[in-house]
Structures are given as C-alpha cells and as structure tokens.
Design brief:
By secondary structure, the chain is α/β, with parallel strands linked by helices. It has one domain: 3-Layer(aba) Sandwich (Rossmann fold), CATH 3.40.50. The longest helix has 25 residues. It is globular, with a radius of gyration of 20 Å. The two termini are about 15 Å apart.
C-alpha cells in the first residue's frame, strides 16, 4: 500500500477535485483505492456524499463513522486508536472527514515536543493518522491511499504528511501558487528532519511511520489553453515552476533556463481548466470524465469529457509509477 498526500498551502487551485477524480480513475484502472479526508473542512467528503449521507455520518452520538471516531479513545485517555469506518462509494473506500477534526490541532501541537523526551503518548498522538490509514487500508485491501489535506502549515497537516509515503503538489500557474511553494518546501524538509530526530527516541513497541514525505512531483492545474498551448498570461509563471520546485522542495540548484515543464521529469502532468464540465459534474455527483449525454455532456462537452478522461488517466498512471504502486 502506497500513501500519497496532495498538498499545497495555497488554496483554491482544485486540489480536492484532483484527489476526487484520481480516486475514481484508479477504480477504473482496477486498483483498490482509499480516499482519506484529513482536511477539517471535509470538502472531499462533501464531493463524494450528498447531504442525506453526510447527515447520517455526522449525527450526535455517532462520531465513529468519520476520521474523528478512531481518535476519541486516545483523546479521552480510554485507550488507543479504534477501528475506522470506511464508506463505500462505487468501489472507492472513503475515510470521511469531520469538521470537528480541527480540535485535534492543539493536541498535536502539544505532543510534538514531548516526542523528543520519548513519551509514549506523544508518539501515539503524532502517529495516530498513520494507524488509522493503515487499518482502513487493510480493511479495503487498498493498493493506494490518496490523502487530502487543508491548505495550511499546521500540526494536523504535519501529522498527515508524516503518515504519507509521498507528497504530490498541485500548482496553479500564478504568483501566489509559487509563493506557496516557496513556503511549503522548507517546511516539508523541517518536518521530515524533525520526525527523523524524534524517531531516535521512539518506544520500541509502537508501529510508527517512517515519515519520508518523499516529493512525488507537481501537477500544474487550471491553465487555459488555445490551440493546445497555454495562453500567454500563464507563460512566465509556468516557465518558473521547474526552478522554484527544485530550489524550494528538493533543495537543489535552480536548473538551466532551458528546463521547461514539458521537459521536467518532476512534472507529473498539466491539467486544463474544464470550466464547462465542472458544473455538470457537480449536478450529476460524478467525476467529469464519467459524464454522459443524459447529464448534459453533448456537443463540445462530449469531446471535453474524452479529453478529461485522457488527461486524468495519464496522470493516474504517472502518479502510480512514481509512487511505485503496481497497476493491474
């Protein structure tokens, strides 16, 4: 099982939609997939489930059906991690998010320094997401876990990324996304080295993640195209992405100017902005590439659906390849 987190501290670039569509595509490709919503805003969960289903997951007295449920025994001092509930959506396993997960932030912040003292409870708290994901993946016999996190650099995301094998970074071709990348890269290295230092104090009996957070690459999203080329307004930002990614995330020297996105091995894919399809997909509650004429995908929309399928299939295969997840 490979766990891939999709992370950028710049919001609004379509990260959650990316995870949602990849989950559906991996199911089409024959992989068993677990989608884990570790964002306290629970946007991924709301993409998968309608209001009636959400209400059944979030009623009073039944917290065990979201990501928060398995944490409660640990937080209340009544034991370790409980078994998680995994929703099934057309073959996709969903570890549902919870708005109340934000309350876990303070506990994660408080316990982080105590790991340096070898405190067992501190390691249990920081490694809680790893335990939940591992159990949920075992229940589903998952080949790949896709983790959605919020756009911030807080303690919840630190714990979520420690539980991940790989980190994929969605980017928009704009100034704000590049600035977010410059903030994110050093923080990832800081979290990785901090966890490595803490693992030297680990209690021998605990199953803890390696916290590799191996950079998988980046996905350029939401760029407009004309005649199959990005429009000029995006050109200068796209040209800077390879250098900023290497410098900020990999800690390498900026490459020569002739290293473009098209030639950059760290670029997993470029995805067009399918503006016309997203409203139809939201109404039909399905991914864009599964839209049918009955959903309104006719004329030019029908061709866009096929283009979307091709783009996400190519991306899914590349992510699996880089994560060393075997496709059937």
């Amino acid at each position: 099982m490979k766990a891939v987190a999709f992370f950028n501290n710049k919001g609004g670039i379509g990260k959650t939609s990316l995870v949602y569509h990849l989950a559906w595509m991996y199911t089409e490709l024959g992989l068993s997939v677990l989608a884990a919503d570790l964002d306290p805003q629970a946007n991924l969960t709301t993409m998968f489930l309608d209001e009636d289903a959400l209400e059944s997951l979030w009623p009073n007295g039944m917290p065990g059906r979201t990501i928060l449920g398995p944490l409660l025994p640990l937080l209340e001092g009544k034991g370790g991690i409980a078994d998680p509930h995994v929703e099934d959506i057309a073959g996709i396993g969903l570890l549902a998010g919870d708005l109340a997960l934000s309350g876990f932030e303070d506990e994660l912040s408080q316990q982080w320094p105590y790991c340096l003292e070898g405190k067992t409870r501190a390691f249990r708290v920081i490694g809680a997401f790893h335990q939940i994901l591992a159990r949920a993946a075992q229940l589903r016999e998952a080949d790949i876990v896709l983790i959605d996190v919020g756009p911030n650099l807080g303690a919840i995301n630190r714990a979520a990324l420690i539980a991940a094998d790989h980190v994929a970074i969605p980017l928009a071709p704009d100034l704000f996304s590049l600035k977010g990348l410059q903030n994110l890269g050093p923080r990832l290295r800081e979290w990785r080295s901090g966890w490595e230092e803490r693992l030297k104090k680990r209690p021998a009996e605990l199953d803890l993640p390696d916290g590799r957070m191996e950079p998988l690459g980046y996905v350029v999203m939401q760029h407009a195209v004309r005649l199959d080329r990005p429009v000029k307004a995006y050109g200068k930002w796209m040209a800077r992405i390879p250098g900023v990614y290497r410098e900020a995330v990999l800690g390498e020297a900026i490459p020569q100017a002739d290293v473009t996105i098209a030639r950059d091995p760290h670029c997993l894919s470029t995805l067009k902005h399918y503006r016309s399809l997203m409203p139809l997909a939201q109404e039909a509650r399905k991914p864009m590439f599964l839209l049918k004429p009955a959903d309104g995908a006719i004329g030019g929309h029908a061709q866009a659906v096929q283009d979307c399928r091709r783009d996400f299939r190519t991306l899914a295969i590349e992510v699996a390849k880089q994560a060393r997840a075997t496709l059937p």
